[in-house]
């Protein structure tokens, strides 16, 4: 697997704080991977995002994006490779209409207008918001706003998309459409997805989960193994998966295999038990 | 307090050339001392509905009765304090209402407006801060130095401090991590057991299944269903028309019923589901 | 908050909507200027006919224009009454103390009234048919020559458009905070002046706090999307001046000439 982000011995402490927000953190993120970063509020997840995008400067350590170490000179170039979708859809909408907002990143690159018009249309097609091109953001639902934010990020053709709790303020319907979209985009566009979340169902879509606590990585594993720790997940700011919770209430009278099963696997086990009767 | 809506219609911009119905002929009874959940998609009128209960909004037509108060379009804006004292309201992202220098002063703000003496308000602040799961050390801090989750708790304490009989909650756990969410929901369930009426707006159907006694479903300003959660979640018409999503347990049961299993009525909580599965597998 | 009709855009697609906003913006100001040239009944009737024709072309419900008068109703009434009773005259119809009612007074008062109506209608027409962002684009385009003296035109225009974009958001936030504090027992508009002013503290502080947090979030989001300092940016929106706009300018010229003619008549 090819690395796309490589972080080494990263440290960061906020100016008005004594405790480091990121504490000697080292991690590699691979191309086309979907990585979930989880952890309680205040565990350093959002700080890490900002360090990866060079929005704040690390006290020490290095961040390499696509083989390039971030520094003063190349920061703007590196940033074009990363797109961030933030938590509050209202606080990241720059344009007065949907199309204006999608164009913002392209305007910043100084792209000629004819090309921009094509790119904006294309990005809006990708997220299924083309019909809303002329609309005022105020008239959109939360999920639609986030899809526009994703289009704005896609327009500049990044390699990496960071979802910084981008579904946490959406209703279930909005959350579902945004996650489906991201899943499809990752496959079609060869993107790397980093999603910061509290939502267990969102982590189920990822290939790897990194658990942060006090600015350090305390776990780094595939979802199945992380879910295995059951009720202790709450220490990491995650809910116990539904299948696991159900299994623990069934164990006293049914014979079920050890370890974590997802909902489908559990259903198969139950069907087996029922048909054996 | 019992709350009754009788044919309540609310139109935003009633006098403007573009009228906009927020509520459309809603009749609903919310029982005293019960935990009632109100669900529906964004923009379905849930928030408009509850804002009538403490007269932040008034009906364009129809009337509602809150305890012994009657609210109609004619209701005067004066003398609403006694009503608002009885009906506490926790807004969505309530941390944005904090403004005092200290947590203590902020919690005391509501009670003092409602005529508590300073020492009564102080006592209330000391009691509430612990009720919401923070220690008394927080009282002298500035609310703006706290984390988002802590600010949320302080804001909730500020509403509870006036000792309302009815507590309205508009998605009180949005954006909190799972631990915080459970703690806050348990706190409200606990308040109900102490004799409060709880009205909860939520998108989380598991919270409805686990905590609510009654539920109401809104869509496009209309009340489309109300009753016991176990009945409403088994209402096929609502589900087919996409007006309602199911709690996880019911969804799981539905999938499980593809083979071998059969549910006359979908279980809505984990305990119900687990009991059903055990019974069907073990056959006892 | 929605009661303010002036300054609110109403989506639509009639001829007036399709005009170049720069033209609409400048011609509106121009029209307000020539309103003061009218000096007799005929000239006022003519201008009113022109404005009503423009309103007709916009295909917007006339009610919106009447509503536009409402916010300054008291100002109009006060000015009209002032003219009505304080215009000095040698042939008063009615006289009481320092109040004088005369034919001249009545004529001047009605001119003033019509002048108000003309100005309000035409500017309401501009704001109803032009989005705030089009107005801000127009201002940018009109100010462009100032770039030569190092005035940061593009930055100011972006600032203006972002400010406009966040007005509705802050209005929502204000309503929400007011509701929240009302629910905590604040009574706005009750008690003496000091008490009233004090009751706004619980609104202003939270509003400042959220404005700053929105500004911070937005700055981070803009930087992450590659916004540096406004230099080297290209522009997605373009304004197009077309034949329609030329015709509109000609019509306005014709209106001026006819007005000058009626005036000296």
TrEMBL record, chain A:
It is found in: Cell membrane. It is an enzyme of class 3 (hydrolase). Pfam families: ABC_tran. It is a peripheral membrane protein. Keywords: ATP-binding, Cell membrane, Hydrolase, Membrane, Nucleotide-binding, Translocase, Transport. It comes from the Bacteria. GO terms for molecular function: ATP binding; ATP hydrolysis activity; ATPase-coupled transmembrane transporter activity. This is Phosphate-transporting ATPase. Its EC number is 3.6.3.27. Residues 5-239 form the ABC transporter domain. GO terms for cellular component: ATP-binding cassette (ABC) transporter complex. The gene is pstB. PROSITE patterns: ABC_TRANSPORTER_1 (PS00211), ABC_TRANSPORTER_2 (PS50893). Belongs to the ABC transporter superfamily. The keyword Nucleotide-binding applies. Gene3D superfamilies: P-loop containing nucleotide triphosphate hydrolases (3.40.50.300). InterPro entries: AAA+_ATPase, ABC_transporter-like_ATP-bd, ABC_transporter-like_CS, ABC_transpr_CbiO/EcfA_su, ECF_ABC_transporter_ATP-bd, EcfA_1, P-loop_NTPase.
Automatic annotation (TrEMBL), chain B:
One of its GO terms (cellular component) is ATP-binding cassette (ABC) transporter complex. The keyword Nucleotide-binding applies. Transmembrane segments: none annotated. Residues 3-245 form the ABC transporter domain. InterPro entries: AAA+_ATPase, ABC_transporter-like_ATP-bd, ABC_transporter-like_CS, ABC_transpr_CbiO/EcfA_su, ECF_ABC_transporter_ATP-bd, EcfA2, P-loop_NTPase. Pfam families: ABC_tran (PF00005). It comes from the Bacteria. Belongs to the ABC transporter superfamily. Energy-coupling factor EcfA family. ATP-binding (A) component of a common energy-coupling factor (ECF) ABC-transporter complex. This is Energy-coupling factor transporter ATP-binding protein EcfA2. It comes from Companilactobacillus kimchii.
From TrEMBL, chain C:
It is found in: Cell membrane. It comes from the Bacteria. InterPro entries: ABC/ECF_trnsptr_transmembrane, EcfT. GO terms for molecular function: transmembrane transporter activity. Belongs to the energy-coupling factor EcfT family. It is a multi-pass membrane protein. One of its GO terms (cellular component) is plasma membrane. Forms a stable energy-coupling factor (ECF) transporter complex composed of 2 membrane-embedded substrate-binding proteins (S component), 2 ATP-binding proteins (A component) and 2 transmembrane proteins (T component). HAMAP family: EcfT. Its main location: membrane. The chain crosses the membrane at residues 29-57, 69-86, 106-128, 149-171, 200-222, 243-262. This is Energy-coupling factor transporter transmembrane protein EcfT. Keywords: Cell membrane, Membrane, Transmembrane, Transmembrane helix, Transport. Transmembrane (T) component of an energy-coupling factor (ECF) ABC-transporter complex. Unlike classic ABC transporters this ECF transporter provides the energy necessary to transport a number of different substrates.
């Amino acid at each position: 697997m090819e690395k796309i982000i490589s972080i080494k011995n990263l440290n960061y402490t906020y100016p008005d704080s004594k405790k480091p927000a990121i504490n000697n953190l080292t991690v590699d993120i691979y191309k086309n991977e979907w990585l979930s970063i989880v952890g309680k509020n205040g565990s350093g997840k959002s700080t890490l995002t900002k360090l990866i995008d060079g929005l704040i400067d690390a006290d020490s350590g290095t961040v390499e994006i696509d083989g390039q170490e971030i520094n003063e000179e190349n920061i703007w170039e590196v940033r074009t490779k990363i797109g961030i979708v933030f938590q509050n859809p209202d606080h990241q909408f720059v344009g007065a209409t949907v199309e204006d907002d999608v164009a913002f990143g392209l305007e910043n690159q100084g792209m000629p207008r004819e090309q921009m018009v094509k790119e904006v249309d294309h990005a809006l097609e990708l997220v299924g918001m083309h019909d809303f091109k002329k609309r005022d953001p105020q008239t959109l639902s939360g999920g639609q706003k986030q899809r526009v934010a994703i289009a704005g990020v896609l327009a500049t053709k990044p390699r990496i998309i960071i979802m910084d709790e981008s579904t946490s303020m959406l209703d279930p319907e909005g959350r579902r459409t945004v996650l489906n979209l991201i899943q499809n985009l990752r496959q079609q566009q060869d993107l790397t997805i980093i999603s910061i979340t509290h939502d267990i169902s969102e982590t189920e879509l990822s290939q790897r989960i990194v658990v942060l606590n006090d600015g350090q990585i305390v776990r780094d594993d595939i979802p199945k193994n992380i879910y295995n720790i059951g009720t202790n997940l709450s220490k990491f700011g995650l809910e116990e998966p539904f299948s696991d919770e159900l299994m623990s209430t069934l164990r006293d009278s049914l014979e079920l295999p050890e370890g974590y099963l997802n909902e489908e696997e559990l259903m198969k086990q139950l069907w087996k038990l029922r048909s054996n009767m | 307090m019992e709350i009754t809506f009788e044919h309540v219609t609310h139109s935003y911009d009633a006098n403007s050339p573009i009228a906009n119905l927020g509520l459309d002929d809603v009749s609903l009874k919310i029982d005293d001392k019960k935990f009632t959940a109100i669900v529906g998609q964004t923009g379905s009128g849930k928030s408009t509905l509850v804002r009538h209960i403490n007269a932040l909004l008034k009906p364009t037509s129809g009337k509602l009765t809150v305890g012994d108060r009657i609210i109609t379009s004619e209701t005067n804006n004066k003398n609403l304090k006694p009503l608002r004292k009885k009906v506490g309201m926790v807004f969505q992202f309530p941390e944005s209402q904090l403004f005092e220098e200290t947590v203590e002063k902020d919690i005391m703000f509501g009670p003092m407006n409602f005529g508590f003496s300073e020492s009564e308000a102080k006592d209330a602040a000391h009691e509430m801060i612990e009720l919401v799961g923070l220690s008394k050390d927080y009282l002298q801090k500035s609310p703006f130095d706290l984390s988002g989750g802590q600010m949320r708790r302080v804001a909730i304490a500020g509403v509870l401090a006036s000792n309302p009989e009815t507590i309205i909650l508009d998605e009180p756990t949005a954006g909190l991590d799972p631990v915080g969410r459970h703690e806050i929901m348990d706190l409200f369930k606990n308040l109900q057991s102490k004799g409060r009426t709880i009205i909860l707006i939520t998108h989380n159907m598991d919270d409805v299944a686990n905590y609510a006694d009654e539920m109401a479903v809104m869509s496009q300003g209309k009340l489309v269903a109300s009753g016991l959660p176990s009945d409403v979640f088994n209402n096929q018409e609502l589900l087919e028309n996409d007006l309602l999503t199911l709690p996880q347990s019911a969804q799981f049961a539905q999938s499980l019923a593809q083979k071998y299993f059969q549910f006359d009525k979908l279980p809505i909580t984990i305990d119900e589901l687990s009991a059903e599965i055990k019974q069907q597998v073990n056959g006892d | 908050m929605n009661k303010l009709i002036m300054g609110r855009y109403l989506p639509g697609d009639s001829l007036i909507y399709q005009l170049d906003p720069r033209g609409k913006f400048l011609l509106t100001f121009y029209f307000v200027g020539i309103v003061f040239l009218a000096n007799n009944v005929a000239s006022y009737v003519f201008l009113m006919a022109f404005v009503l024709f423009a309103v007709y072309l916009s295909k917007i419900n006339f009610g919106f224009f009447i509503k536009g008068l409402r916010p300054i109703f008291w100002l109009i009434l006060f000015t009209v009454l002032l003219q009505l009773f304080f215009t000095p005259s040698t042939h008063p119809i009615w006289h009481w103390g320092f109040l004088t009612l005369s034919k001249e007074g009545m004529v001047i008062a009605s001119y003033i009234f019509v002048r108000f109506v003309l100005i309000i209608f035409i500017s309401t027409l501009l704001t109803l048919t032009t989005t705030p962002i089009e107005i801000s684009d127009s201002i940018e385009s009109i100010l462009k020559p100032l770039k030569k003296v190092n005035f940061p035109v593009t930055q100011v225009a972006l600032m203006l458009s972002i400010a406009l974009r966040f007005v509705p958001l802050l209005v929502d936030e204000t309503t929400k905070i007011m509701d929240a504090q009302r629910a905590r027992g604040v009574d706005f508009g009750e008690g003496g002046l000091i008490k009233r002013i004090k009751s706004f503290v619980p609104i202003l502080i939270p509003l400042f706090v959220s404005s700053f947090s929105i500004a911070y979030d937005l700055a981070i989001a803009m930087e992450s999307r590659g916004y540096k300092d406004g230099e080297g940016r290209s522009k997605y929106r373009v304004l197009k001046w077309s034949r329609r706009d030329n015709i509109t300018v000609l019509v306005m010229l014709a209106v001026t000439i006819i007005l000058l003619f009626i005036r000296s008549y």
